[in-house]
Design goal:
It is a single chain. By secondary structure, this protein is mostly helical. It folds into 2 domains: 31 residues; 42 residues, no CATH class. Helix content is 73%, strand content 0%.
C-alpha cells in the first residue's frame, strides 16, 4: 500500500532545502506538461543564454537587481 499524503509530507520535510526544491519542481512540472509551452520555454532559455554569452545584454548581480526593485516600489 503506498504511503498517504501525510507520510509523504513528513518525509519530504526531512529533506534538505535543495532536495525539497528539486522535489517541488518535479511535482509541479508533472501537473501541466504542454509540449508547446515546454518548447517555447526551451527556445527562450536558449535565446537568453546566447544573449548573455554574446554580450548583447549586461547581467546585473542579483543583489543590485533586488535593490533596484525595492527602490522602485517605494
Amino acid at each position: 500500500m503506498p504511503p498517504n499524503i501525510a507520510e509523504l509530507e513528513a518525509q519530504a520535510l526531512q529533506l534538505s532545502p535543495e532536495d525539497r526544491a528539486q522535489l517541488a519542481d518535479k511535482l509541479l512540472s508533472s501537473l501541466a506538461v504542454d509540449p508547446v509551452i515546454e518548447e517555447a520555454w526551451a527556445v527562450e532559455v536558449d535565446r537568453r543564454i546566447r544573449e548573455l554569452d554574446g554580450s548583447a545584454v549586461n547581467d546585473i548581480p542579483v543583489q543590485d537587481s533586488i535593490a533596484r526593485a525595492r527602490a522602485a516600489i517605494r
